[in-house]
Write a structure and sequence with these properties.
Length: 670
């Protein structure tokens, strides 16, 4: 390759020597070029005006040096430029121009001669290219126009090396230049080298059943686009990190029998590519693979290319919207895009997505199956049952789970190690705050411990008989611990729905408009997952607007009321302070159910449910106790290692005495 590099550089020097005389600036610099490129001693330039005799000796020396450097190793760059030219339909001149810029990017000796010649200001870049390619300067200028094939194809781009002279405004991408140095057999090998197929997926199509009809629609869309060669097909997958966007792209490509090829992930040195390099590579990939009916492109982190949230003055590169829009509208190969946040993407580019889907954390049922499959692959623990049980109370993204299992396996640890690693990763990705696990009760829901003004078993049986989830809503009010949220989760199980439970801290934001967005997102997520939505502490979200001191308090309630009016699935609001709710909530709830303290006849069952110790008769004299009080005292007794009935009774009295209110009312027991 060194011989080829020297031959190219010496050939350009010899060509310039043919075109210029001994008195030119080129002739003045030429001896230095020869000494830089070779070990030969150039005839000394006369101190007076150099004449034809000296110039003749220099040219003869150049002829000899060119013959010596010719060698027999061949010009791989020229061979690959020809292959690319045939694939893209380039003319012979365009092929030679492509070769010129590939040589300039690749060979330091050749680049040195080009830069030094341009520094003399006696030649121009089109002139040098014309000498190299044997073409006329007018033909070269025409081939370098922005709308000509070289630029339109992405083979040449403006974001080349940041040369101080700024006299070489075009360049081939580093990745393309590197590929053109490879000794391959044909264009297919060159394409595979530039855009290797993505690794096989670990997931299965069934793992994404939570996406519902969207997954099937994408499969049909991609199948038709590949079969018909439809241009401008762009599918966007967005969602939080770790939710499986890239993995789904791999699975989707496998489902339609296509080869998925990642674009713009690294430059030839393994470093982060620039925006210009990613766009150039995307354009090249589209045109190189356009003749195939089994190729799909993957471009991760769409916001890096089409980000709109950052002020333009802070962006390292500017991208023409017109160019990017045309790229999205005309790309000949279907593209799968991913992004963690649409907020940072320019709406003009989002509008050109053919279809888009939000990737969410899988439901509990799907999550358990994914965890089971991951456990079988990584084999990190000896207690797979305990591991899978964790999937029911943790909704971490599959990628975090897989990484934690891998670390646990490498450490030789079990469930405890896995849980520790998973918790650390989840906390890191959640901004340093550990996300709460899904609620799980230590004691199963016991209908006989509910003291309500509505017959819950009858209501449940009627709702279970409905052909589909009804558009109904519940306001559950009553003292803390009386079972409001527990019954809401029980109702979800009866209806076959997953649960989305939100607290005020999950939704309230310090930023103007932030709470409203969080509320809208909560309803949208529940609708997308077909889940029962539970709002705990609803009085914080639906406070009486007549007492509002700020406009945002009013707009927050308005947002809640609007969504409550239009939400198509069941949802539940719980509150300990029903009297503080806005009057407009009165007609927003289908059912208003009061949960109260346990009745006297319910106390023995509450005792036997939570304690193994014999019932203390004096418990019947305590009022204002709730199931939550028994559960709390049971935890306290376990912590203290006590099971004495008298001690239990004393703790229950303390729970009752700490409360305010009327004595125990009478209501429906079941």
């Amino acid at each position: 390759m060194m011989t080829c590099e020297k031959h190219l550089a010496l050939g350009l020097v010899a060509t310039l020597a043919e075109r210029f005389g001994p008195g030119s600036k080129i002739a003045k610099e030429l001896p230095g070029w020869i000494e830089y490129l070779t070990d030969a001693e150039c005839p000394e330039r006369p101190r007076t005006r150099p004449g034809a005799a000296w110039w003749g000796r220099v040219r003869d020396l150049l002829d000899d040096l060119c013959k010596e450097a010719a060698g027999d190793d061949g010009n791989v760059v020229r061979t690959n430029a020809t292959r690319i030219g045939q694939h893209f339909g380039l003319t012979g001149i365009e092929v030679r121009i492509l070769e010129f810029f590939a040589d300039y990017r690749t060979f330091d000796m050749f680049a040195h001669v080009v830069d030094q010649a341009l520094e003399t200001r006696e030649v121009t870049l089109p002139f040098l290219i014309a000498q190299f390619s044997g073409a006329e300067q007018g033909e070269v200028r025409a081939a370098l126009r922005p709308d000509a094939r070289l630029k339109a194809s992405g083979l040449l781009q403006n974001e080349g090396r940041n040369w101080p002279s700024q006299r070489v405004p075009y360049a081939v991408s580093p990745r393309l230049a590197d590929a053109m140095l490879a000794d391959v057999d044909d264009i297919e090998d060159l394409v595979a080298l530039l855009f290797p197929p993505a690794a096989s997926p670990d997931a299965e199509w069934q793992d994404f059943e939570g996406m519902g009809k969207s997954a099937d629609l994408m499969r049909k869309l991609l199948t038709k686009a590949l079969a018909n060669g439809t241009p401008g097909v762009n599918i966007l997958l967005y969602g939080a990190p770790g939710t499986g966007k890239t993995e789904f792209c791999k699975v989707l490509a496998r489902e339609v029998g296509a080869s998925l090829r990642a674009v713009g992930e690294a430059d030839d040195s393994g470093d982060e590519p620039s925006r210009g390099e990613r766009l150039a590579e995307l354009g090249i990939a589209g045109r190189m693979l356009s003749a195939r009916c089994d190729a799909v492109l993957l471009l991760d982190e769409m916001e890096d290319l089409f980000g709109g949230g950052m002020p333009q003055s802070f962006r390292p590169e500017r991208i023409s919207k017109v160019f990017a829009n045309r790229l999205l509208e005309t790309n000949p190969v279907p593209i799968l895009w991913t992004t963690n946040s649409m907020d940072s993407c320019d709406p003009a580019f989002l509008r050109r997505m053919t279809f888009s889907v939000e990737m969410r954390t899988p439901s509990e049922q799907v999550r358990k199956r994914i965890w089971q499959r991951l456990a079988e692959r990584h084999q990190p623990v000896a207690e797979p049952g305990a591991l899978i049980a964790l999937a029911g109370i943790h909704d971490h993204p599959p990628a975090l789970v897989s990484d934690a299992m891998r670390v646990a396996r490498n450490c030789g640890g079990g469930v405890e190690t896995f849980t520790q690693v998973l918790g650390a990763s989840a906390k890191l990705t959640n901004g340093g705050i550990a996300p709460p696990p899904q609620h799980h009760s230590e004691v199963a829901w016991e209908p006989a411990l509910a003291n309500t003004d509505t017959c819950l078993p009858l209501l449940q049986s009627r709702l279970r008989g409905a052909p589909q989830a009804l558009r109904i809503s519940f306001c559950l009010d009553g003292p803390a611990g009386t079972g409001k949220s527990a019954w809401a989760r029980h109702l979800a199980r009866q209806l076959g729905l997953s649960v989305h439970q939100k607290r005020a801290s999950d939704l309230l934001s310090m930023w103007v408009g932030g709470s409203e967005k969080a509320i809208a997102r909560a309803f949208a997520d529940a609708r997308a997952d077909g889940a029962l939505l539970i709002f705990d502490e609803a009085d914080s979200l639906l406070a009486d607007r007549r007492n509002a001191g700020h406009q945002w308090e009013v707009s927050q309630v308005n947002e809640m009321l609007t969504w409550m009016e239009s939400h198509p699935l069941p949802f539940v609001c719980t509150t300990n302070l029903v009297e503080k709710l806005d009057p407009a909530t009165q007609r927003r709830f289908t059912f208003r159910i009061r949960f109260d303290w346990l009745r006297e006849d319910q106390l023995p069952l509450a005792w036997s449910t939570h304690f193994a110790a014999p019932l203390h008769a004096d418990v019947m004299s305590i009022d204002r106790l709730a199931p939550g009080d028994f559960a709390n005292v049971a935890r306290r007794m376990r912590a203290l290692g006590q099971d004495d009935p008298a001690a239990i009774l004393g703790e229950l009295r303390r729970e009752s005495e700490a409360k305010e209110g009327k004595a125990r009312p009478i209501g429906f027991g079941r």
